[in-house]
Amino acid sequence: MKCYIVDAFAERLFEGNPAAVCVLDEWISAELMQNIAIENNLSETAFVVKQDNEYKLRWFTPGGEIDLCGHATLASAFVITAYYEPFMDIVQFQTMSGMLVVEKQENLFEMTFPSQTPAPCPLTEEMVDALDIKPVEAYLGRDLMLVLEDEKAVQNATPDFLKL
Prior knowledge:
The chain is α+β, with helices and mostly antiparallel strands. The protein has four helices and eleven strands; from the N terminus they run ββαβββαββββαββα. The two termini are 37 Å apart.
């Protein structure tokens, strides 16, 4: 297997958001992918397998598999177009979040994220305790989003990150 480290959102080396991209001929076990992600110790390690005219893509953090990662998807498209299919301008990835399409435009890559509308959820004592301020609203989708009164409230917040 070949593994690349790509800095997404960067103009120079050692900037941006790094992701590992592992290009496989066929799938390896989820346990082995997890161990590789732990060893890489980056926010995400992407695993890519070509099947027909598209690529299958999975993402692992050191803590487990996740359903979507933008910067590791862009990094995977870069690796494919730079080292495997240099004439390809559109890379299609089949993922846990559905089909993701990355378009190469000269030296830039563009991707449209799937829409995941969060639903309102009730505020809990744990949320208020973790933020040390009472949010105005709460929403739950892939992530929990808490809305504060205004920008100043956000700037002055002193959350307890261990509780979060």
